[in-house]
Specification:
By secondary structure, the chain is mostly helical. The chain is built from 12 helices and 2 strands. The protein folds into 2 domains: 2-83, no CATH class; 100-296, Orthogonal Bundle (MetI-like fold).
Length: 335
């Protein structure tokens, strides 16, 4: 297992390197970070623009800037991914991209992790029930719900859930669902009050983000479970008199989880993208909101930092999925 993990980590290096090249070139071609400054009215002093070009390293060639962005060699100590420096920001020398990404990442992490856990758990349960009770009323109801969530875009689900939460708070006179990532002032809160406050802020965005991931996962789990239930070894277990519950839990479910593991790794990327929309709707100042702010200000190094972090998360998720195969399928052995 350790040798296989090391091989996969080494194989991830060229993948991330290729992703960094594409990321840098696409962002570099997308526009001039100082475009707004150049066309500002009244005109900005050319000396100020020249100074900003030097600070943003725009006075160097594209290959030089890429190597500088990756290594930081020849920079001013504020750039170099391998050194943990994301680069200078157009928002000023005082704006630390790395510190901002770190703070925003923690905010997004609790939302995404909880939503993913709920989506995967609910997808497994509903997928198994649908497969076991194929063509029953329950199966039709779960299938309809899954396809409905699958057909609705993330922004529409988020807007509906937000309006529903606001309506429920108004009609019931409660604050069980709150907009925003956190209360403005939590000083003096007890541990229970802090927990309930965090739960109230997490409830609506987590529900919206969970539904976007659950829809696809439940369909895969149902199809995978049906295929396993019709396999020869499951039929043999039933023919030997093994109880149906034991067959499903010990024989069928474990094998049926393998395709779901693969899809779950891909859904993580979709969840990160979906968090951009959900965070804006529910006023969460997480990574999604940071990405939109960076795009709107044409802050190229901030956008590239967000893209590289997303790439690392996706590569890591696929590595974890590969390692889980050996846990779910005893036939797989890692050399």
């Amino acid at each position: 297992m350790a040798v296989y993990t090391m091989r996969r980590l080494l194989a991830a290096i060229p993948v991330l390197l290729a992703a960094s090249v594409l990321c840098f070139l696409l962002i570099d071609l997308s526009g001039d970070p100082l475009g707004d400054l150049r066309v500002a009215q009244p005109p900005v002093d050319p000396a100020v623009i020249a100074s900003e070009e030097v600070r943003m390293y725009l006075d160097r060639s594209v290959p030089q800037r890429y190597l500088l962005w990756m290594t930081g060699i020849g920079g001013n100590g504020d750039i170099g991914l391998l050194q943990g420096k994301f680069g200078p920001s157009v928002r000023g020398p005082a704006f630390d991209i790395g510190a901002e990404i770190g703070a925003r990442f923690l905010i997004t992490l609790r939302l995404v992790v909880i939503a993913l856990m709920m989506a995967i758990g609910l997808a497994i349960v509903s997928g198994v029930i649908s497969a076991v009770k194929q063509y029953s009323t329950v199966d039709y109801l779960l299938t309809f719900t899954g396809f409905l969530a699958l057909a609705m875009p993330a922004f529409w689900i988020g807007a509906l859930i937000k309006e529903g939460g606001v309506w429920a708070n108004r009609e019931l006179g409660t604050g069980f669902a709150t907009i925003g990532a956190a209360s403005a002032d939590t000083r003096g809160f007890t541990a229970w009050e802090s927990f309930t406050d965090a739960a109230a802020h997490l409830f609506l965005p987590t529900l919206a983000l969970m539904l976007t991931g659950y829809a696809a996962l439940s369909r895969y789990q149902r199809a995978s479970m049906l295929e396993v239930l019709n396999s020869d070894y499951v039929r043999l277990a039933r023919a030997k008199g093994v109880r149906n519950r034991v067959v499903i839990r010990r024989h069928a479910l474990r094998t049926a989880l393998i395709p779901l593991t693969t899809v779950s790794a891909l859904v993580i990327a979709g969840t990160i993208d979906g968090a951009i929309i959900i965070e804006r709707i529910f006023q969460w100042r997480g990574l999604g909101d940071f990405f939109l702010e960076s795009v709107s200000t044409n802050d190229s190094y901030s956008v590239m930092g967000w893209l590289m972090l997303s790439g690392i998360i996706v590569v890591t998720a696929n590595l974890v999925a590969d390692l889980l195969y050996g846990v779910l399928d005893p036939r797989i052995r890692y050399g």
